Amino acid sequence: MNNYIVILAAGKSKRFHNKIAKQFYIYKNKETIDHSIEKSLNSKLFKKIVVVSNNPNRLKKKKYPKLVKIIKGGKERSDSSLNALKYLKKFKPNNVLIHDAARPNFSINLLNNLIKNLKKNKAVVPYIHPKDSIKYKSQNQFINLDRNKILLTQTPQAFKFRDLYTLSLKNNKNITDEATLFINNNYKIFYIRGERKNNKITYFNDIKINKTTFGIGFDIHRLIKNKTLYLGGTKIPFHSGLQGHSDGDVILHAIIDAILGAIQKKDIGTYFPSNKNKYKNIRSPKMLKPVLEHLYKNNFSINNLDVNLICEKPKVSKYRNKIINSISNLMNLEKKKINLKGKTVEKLGLIGKEKAIACEVIISITKYDQEI
Ligand code: ZN
After folding, report:
1. What is the CATH number of domain 3-206?
2. What CATH topology corresponds to 211-367?
């Protein structure tokens, strides 16, 4: 594996018309650029991920893993790309991918495909066919073009480093992508099918946020001796556990109800009826899992989760980190989006006498038009 990727994020976003450059605009819960960086990291395909930015200090503050290298961009896209290639030269890369940060929706599968096809080719470029009918204006005449012969090329584009480097040094002015260099120099490009969802954010309207909704959840279970106490999917040492058809995890149950509330899908009892033997003693993470799968499959994204755990004991402050870590892992949700508060009830009632624990949750969820 001697692959490197360059992520270009030095554009000025002239067509974006927003005071924040599009690479730093929050898109699907994170800055646009982070989608490309995270996917490159998760693919485990690259020895180095070079991010080219006009604001390197802003990115350096984010403390990415060491293989992410931030360098300063140039005046034009082609200058930025050349800066990155010059930086990479000392590592003697075989393969280099060049990607525009304005395309946050590519898949890791596409990265694998590009690199696989680079074995027998010098340049591999993804494309899709246009959906619209296309006319070409030539002087005063309009000509219909066959859209099956039109290729809309995307990034990432993959190259043998040496060829790309040589061509870029020669003359890379006024190009909008690296494939252009290869075409201008009569080098062969191998085209592979790109991805429709891998569209480019150019205009502010390209970011289509459908809507944000809120959901509320509440749950309470009685405490009984000789049962393990689970809160937020993790074991908590305590004199009793929570009684219930399942493991009685009030936090996860309240979270599930909050999610279902936000997406208008009734309640936990609809999906996990307590009169069904199938769900007897079920661990609550197993109940949460299909709900989350539905959520992520349908382009919902969680903005934040606020949890009130209502009990006299155990002391929430003692287990806060443990519980938040567990929720974060189970939900694949960043810890900073989860808040857990402890609330006692002045020793009043069942909860005050340590005979029950209750929990309430509020969640904010945004649905996006495009796939995440
Ligand atoms: Zn419950």
Report:
1. 3.90.550.10
2. 60s Ribosomal Protein L30; Chain: A; (3.30.1330)
Q: Ligand 1 centroid to 263 CA: how many Å?
A: 19
- Which sequence spans correspond to the domains of the chain? 3-206, 211-367
Cα–Cα distances in angstroms (integers) from residue 176 to residues 122, 162, 227, in the given order:
19, 20, 64
Domains 3-206 and 211-367 share a fold: no
CA of 307 to the centre of ligand 1 (A): 15
User: How buried is residue 225: exposed, middle or buried, by Cβ count under 10 Å (0-12/13-18/19+)?
Assistant: exposed
Mind listing the pLDDT tens digit of every residue in the chain (372 residues)?
799 999 999 877 666 666 667 777 777 778 889 999 999 999 999 999 999 998 899 898 888 999 999 999 998 899 999 999 999 999 999 999 999 999 999 999 999 999 999 999 999 999 999 999 999 998 889 999 999 999 999 999 999 999 999 999 987 778 889 999 999 999 999 999 999 999 888 766 666 666 899 999 999 999 999 999 999 999 999 999 999 989 999 999 999 999 999 999 999 999 998 888 888 889 999 999 999 999 988 888 899 999 999 999 999 999 999 999 999 999 999 999 999 999 999 999 999 999 999 999 999 998 876 543
- How far does the centroid of ligand 1 lie from the alpha carbon of residue 301, in Å? 24
* Separation CA 354–CA 331 (nearest Å): 29
Cα of 131 vs its chain's centroid, Å: 27
**Cα–Cα distance for residue pair 5/191, rounded to 1 Å:** 19
- Ligand 1 mean position, distance from CA 241 (Å): 13
Q: How many Å lie between the centroid of ligand 1 and the Cα of residue 362?
A: 16
As a dihedral over the C-alpha atoms of residue 288, residue 293, residue 295, residue 300, rounded to 10 degrees, the angle is 130
Q: How far, in Å, is the centroid of ligand 1 from the Cα of 69?
A: 47
